[in-house]
C-alpha cells in the first residue's frame, strides 16, 4: 500500500474514529456476465485492500440479477481473478439471487407504506411522462392504485401471470426531482427467463437500484465503494434504505474514478464482442486486458497491484497510459528473473578455427542484481546469432558484427568475420568467422576492443521453440471497436532457437531473453514437443520510440547512439537519483527513470526544485518539455533557465494557468527566454476557473451537438472527452480543465434518464 492516504481511506478512518461502525465491511460486487478486466482489478484492490488495512472483511458478491446474460463460467473466472491477485474472501462469497425472497419482502413493505406502486404504462408512455432536464415529469395515472391493488398485482407479477413488459414496480419518489434518476425509478420488472442459479422460480427480477443497496445492508456492508457512473444513483440508494426505516447501521455509497487505459477497450460488452467475433482466441487471449489474459501472458499479480497502487484513487475519470502498466511488469521482473539466450531469427555462424566443444559457466543475473545462479552453456564450432546482429553495410553507430568490426558472444569469446556466404538470391545464409582464444569472457587477455556483446546459441544443443510476440490489440489510442483492431497484434515465430537450460526448467517460470524482452511459457499450449513462449513485455518502451520517430522525422539524429534492444544498468549515481526521486519526491517511476538516467536533466531538475519545491509539476515539465529541447541543444544554449521553469510550475500549481496553456508559454520561453509570468500577462493567458463564466459555454456546446448528447446518453461515455475538448477549444484553452471536466460531467449526467443496468 502506498504511504499517502486516499480519500476513501480517510473516510473509513473517520468512521472508525467516530464509532459509526465497529467493523469495516466492503464488497466486490461484479455481475457474472463476462471475465473481469484490469478495471475490476482496481476495484478488487480497493475493496479488499481497504478491508485488509483496517482489519475488516471484504465480501465477494455476484450481482446476478440479470438472468439472460449471466453464467457460472464467469463466476469461476471472477473467483480465479480475486484469488490470483492474492486476496481471500474466506467463506464470504454471496449471490444477490440468494436474497430474492428477502428483496421481495422489502418491496412488499414499500408498497404497504404507500411508497411503491405497480405501473402499467408502456415504455414509450413512460418516457414521455419522465419529462426533461428542464421540465418536470408527470406521474402515471396508475400511481393512484390502492395498496391492496398494488399488493395483488405485484404478487401476480411474481407468480408469472403477466407478459414481460406489461407491468413494473416503481418507487413513489418525485416526478419533478432535479436528479432524473429520482423520478419514480423502477424497482422490479417482469422477465420470464431461466436464471442460472434461481432456476425458474422467479418471473420478476429486481433492478440494480433496488437490489444493490439492500444486498449491501443485508450483508452488513459499511462502505459501498463503486465507480463514478453511479454517482446519480446514490440518491436512490439512500432513499431506499432510509424509507424502509431499517435498523442501523446502514451502508453508505462512495464513488471513485473508473480506470481506463489507452489502446484497449474495457467494457465487458466490447470484450465479449472481440471473443465472439474470433478476433482473439478466447477470454484469456494474452492481448486482452482481462485478468485471465494478463495471467496467461505472464504478468505477475504483484505488477498489477503495483500498477493499481501507482494510479491511485481519484474522483475524476482519466485515461492511464498503458506504458505505465508495462513499466510496472518490467520493473517487477528486472531483478527477479534469470537472463537466458534465445535467437528469434537465426543466422548460422561457423567458427573456422574452433574444434570440439566446451561448456561455459554462465551467470543468470548481471552483477548489479542481488541474485545468484549459473547454468552450463554449451559452445561449439557451429552457432546461431540473430540475423540483424550482422550487417554488411552498417550505418553509423552500428556496434555489432560487421565485416570489419568484431563482436563479443555473450559469456563467450570475441569473433571476427572472415567470409559472408550468400545464396543465389543474394541472401546471406552463413558467416564464417574466427574466434580469439585469449578473449574468453571473465579471463580476457586479448586486448581486442568491442562495442557490444550479442546473444547466440550452440547449433547442436539449441532447442526449437515457438515464440509469440504481442503488440497492442488496437491501433487507435481510444478505440471504438472491432474496426480499430491492430492487424499485427500477434506475430508467431515457429523456429526460434533457445539454449537448452531453459527447456529443462519447471513450467510457470519467467525469463528475460537477453536483448529481446521478458517471456513466459504459455500455460495452455506449452508442451515438451513444442515449447511455446509468450512475450510479456519488451525491455523498453519500443512503442513510445516508434511514435516519437514518426513525429520527429525532420529533426537531426540524437547524439547518443543506443544499441537496439539493450537497456543499460543505472550507474550508482543514477540509481541514487532514481531512489530519491521515487521514494522521497514520490515521482512516478517512469518519470524518475527519465530524469535519473540523464545527468543534464537531473541537474536541471534539482536546480529548479531548489527555486520552488514542487517535485511533481517540475518533473513533468523537465521530463517532457525540457528533455525535448535538450535532445538538440546543450544546457548552455537554452534560452530559459531552471528558475524560470520553477516559476512556470508555480503558475500551474496555483492554477493561474492550465498545463495546456503552460505548454504554449513554454514554447514562447524557448524562443524569447522571457519570464513565464510576463508571457502570461502580455498574452492574456490567465486561466478561467469561474463556473459562472464556463457554464454558458458548456450549454452552447451541448446545444450544438444533440447527436453526441444522445450517443453519450446511450452509454458512449467516452464522448465526455469530446465535450470537454470542445469547451476548452472555445475558450482558447484557457478554461480550467478540472472545472470544465466536473461541470460537463454534471450537466451531461443530468440528462441520463434510464437506469444503467438492472
Ligand atoms: P463493464 O462496464 O466493464 O462491463 P461493470 O461496471 O458492468 O463493467 P461490474 O461487474 O458491475 O462491471 O463491476 C464490478 C465492480 O467493478 C463494480 O463495483 C464496478 O464499479 C467496478 N469496475 C468495473 N469496471 C471498472 C473500471 N474500469 N475501473 C474501476 N472499477 C471498475
Ligand atoms: Mg456495466
Q: What number is the mean pLDDT?
A: 91
The CATH superfamily label of the largest domain reads Ribosomal Protein L25, Chain P
Over all CA atoms, what is the radius of gyration?
31 Å
CATH architecture of the largest domain: Beta Barrel
- As a percent range, the share of helical residues equals 25-40%
Summing up helix and strand content along with how strands pair, one would put the structural category as alpha/beta
CATH class of the largest domain: Mainly Beta
Number of E-state strands: 27
Ranges where pLDDT stays below 50 over 5 or more residues in a row are 545-566
Number of helices: 24
| Strand arrangement in the largest pleated sheet | 12-25-26-27-23-24-13
Ends distance = 34 Å
Total domain count: 5
Largest sheet: 7 strands, mixed
Our estimate of the beta-strand percent is 15-25%
**Oligomeric state of this protein:** single chain
Bound small molecules, by name, code or SMILES, are: adenosine-5'-triphosphate, magnesium ion
Shape: globular
Query: What is the third-level CATH name, the topology of the largest domain?
Result: Ribosomal Protein L25, Chain P
Amino acid at each position: 500500500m502506498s504511504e499517502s492516504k486516499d480519500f476513501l481511506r480517510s473516510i473509513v478512518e473517520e468512521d472508525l474514529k467516530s464509532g459509526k461502525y465497529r467493523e469495516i465491511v466492503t464488497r466486490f460486487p461484479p455481475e457474472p456476465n463476462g471475465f473481469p478486466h484490469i478495471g475490476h482489478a482496481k476495484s478488487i484492490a480497493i475493496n479488499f485492500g481497504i478491508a485488509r488495512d483496517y482489519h475488516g472483511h471484504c465480501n465477494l458478491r455476484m450481482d446476478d440479477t440479470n438472468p439472460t446474460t449471466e453464467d457460472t463460467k464467469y463466476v469461476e473466472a471472477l473467483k480465479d481473478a480475486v484469488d490470483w491477485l492474492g486476496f481471500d474472501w474466506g467463506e464470504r462469497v454471496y449471490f444477490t439471487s440468494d436474497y430474492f425472497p428477502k428483496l421481495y419482502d422489502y418491496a412488499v413493505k414499500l408498497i404497504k407504506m404507500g411508497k411503491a406502486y405497480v405501473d402499467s404504462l408502456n415504455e414509450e408512455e413512460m418516457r414521455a411522462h419522465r419529462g426533461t432536464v428542464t421540465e418536470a415529469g408527470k406521474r402515471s395515472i396508475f400511481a393512484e392504485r390502492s395498496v391492496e391493488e398494488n399488493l395483488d398485482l405485484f404478487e401476480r407479477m411474481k407468480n408469472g401471470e403477466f407478459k414481460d413488459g406489461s407491468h413494473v414496480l416503481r418507487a413513489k419518489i418525485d416526478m419533478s426531482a432535479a436528479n432524473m434518476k429520482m423520478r419514480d425509478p423502477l424497482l422490479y420488472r417482469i422477465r420470464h427467463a431461466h436464471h442460472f442459479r434461481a432456476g425458474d422460480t422467479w418471473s420478476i427480477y429486481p433492478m440494480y437500484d433496488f437490489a444493490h443497496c439492500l444486498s449491501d445492508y443485508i450483508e452488513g456492508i459499511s462502505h459501498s465503494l463503486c465507480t463514478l457512473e453511479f454517482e446519480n444513483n446514490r440518491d436512490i440508494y439512500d432513499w431506499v434504505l432510509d424509507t424502509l426505516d431499517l435498523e442501523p447501521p446502514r451502508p453508505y455509497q462512495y464513488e471513485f474514478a473508473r480506470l481506463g487505459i489507452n489502446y484497449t477497450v474495457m467494457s465487458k460488452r466490447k470484450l465479449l464482442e472481440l471473443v465472439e467475433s474470433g478476433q482473439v482466441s478466447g477470454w484469456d487471449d494474452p492481448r486482452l486486458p482481462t485478468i485471465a489474459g494478463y495471467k496467461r501472458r505472464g504478468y505477475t499479480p504483484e505488477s498489477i497491484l503495483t500498477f493499481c497502487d501507482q494510479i491511485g484513487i481519484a474522483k475524476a475519470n482519466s485515461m492511464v497510459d498503458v506504458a505505465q502498466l508495462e513499466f510496472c511488469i518490467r520493473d517487477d521482473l528486472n531483478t527477479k528473473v534469470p537472463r537466458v539466450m534465445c535467437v528469434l531469427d537465426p543466422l548460422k555462424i561457423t567458427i573456422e578455427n574452433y574444434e570440439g566443444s566446451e561448456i561455459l559457466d554462465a551467470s543468470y543475473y548481471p552483477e548489479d542484481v542481488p541474485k545468484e545462479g549459473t547454468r552450463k552453456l554449451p559452445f561449439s564450432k557451429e552457432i546461431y546469432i540473430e540475423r540483424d546482429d550482422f550487417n554488411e553495410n552498417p550505418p553509423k553507430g552500428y556496434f555489432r558484427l560487421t565485416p570489419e568490426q568484431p563482436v563479443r558472444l555473450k559469456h563467450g569469446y570475441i569473433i571476427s568475420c572472415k567470409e559472408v556466404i550468400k545464396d543465389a538470391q543474394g541472401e546471406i545464409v552463413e558467416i564464417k568467422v574466427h574466434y580469439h582464444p585469449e578473449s574468453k569472457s571473465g579471463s580476457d587477455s586479448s586486448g581486442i576492443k568491442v562495442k557490444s556483446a550479442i546473444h547466440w546459441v550452440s547449433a547442436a544443443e539449441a532447442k526449437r521453440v515457438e515464440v509469440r510476440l504481442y503488440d497492442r490489440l488496437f491501433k487507435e489510442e481510444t478505440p471504438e471497436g472491432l474496426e480499430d483492431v491492430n492487424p499485427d497484434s500477434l506475430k508467431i515465430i515457429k523456429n526460434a532457437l533457445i539454449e537448452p537450460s531453459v527447456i529443462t526448467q519447471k513450467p510457470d517460470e519467467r525469463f528475460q531473453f537477453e536483448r529481446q524482452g521478458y517471456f513466459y511459457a504459455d500455460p495452455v499450449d506449452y508442451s515438451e514437443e513444442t515449447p511455446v513462449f509468450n512475450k510479456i513485455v519488451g525491455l523498453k518502451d519500443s512503442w513510445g520510440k516508434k511514435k516519437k520517430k514518426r513525429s520527429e522525422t525532420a529533426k537531426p539524429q540524437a547524439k547518443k547512439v543506443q544499441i537496439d534492444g539493450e537497456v543499460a544498468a543505472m550507474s550508482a549515481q543514477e540509481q541514487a537519483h532514481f531512489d530519491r526521486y521515487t521514494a522521497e519526491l514520490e515521482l512516478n517511476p517512469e518519470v524518475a527513470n527519465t530524469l535519473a538516467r540523464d545527468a543534464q536533466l537531473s541537474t536541471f531538475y534539482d536546480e529548479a526544485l531548489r527555486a520552488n519545491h514542487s517535485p511533481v509539476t517540475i518533473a513533468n515539465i523537465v521530463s517532457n518539455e525540457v528533455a525535448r529541447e535538450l535532445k538538440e541543444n546543450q544546457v548552455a544554449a537554452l534560452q530559459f533557465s531552471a528558475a524560470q521553469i520553477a516559476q512556470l510550475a508555480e503558475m500551474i500549481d496555483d492554477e493561474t494557468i492550465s498545463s495546456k496553456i503552460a505548454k504554449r508559454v513554454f514554447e514562447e520561453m524557448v524562443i524569447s527566454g522571457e519570464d513565464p509570468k510576463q508571457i502570461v500577462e502580455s498574452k492574456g493567458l490567465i486561466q478561467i476557473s469561474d463556473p459562472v463564466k464556463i457554464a454558458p459555454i458548456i450549454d452552447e456546446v451541448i446545444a450544438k451537438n444533440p447527436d453526441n448528447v444522445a450517443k453519450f446518453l446511450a452509454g458512449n461515455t467516452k464522448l465526455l472527452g469530446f465535450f470537454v475538448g470542445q469547451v476548452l477549444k472555445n475558450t482558447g484553452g484557457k478554461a480550467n480543465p478540472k472545472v470544465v471536466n466536473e461541470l460537463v460531467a454534471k450537466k451531461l449526467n443530468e440528462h441520463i434518464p434510464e437506469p444503467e443496468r438492472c
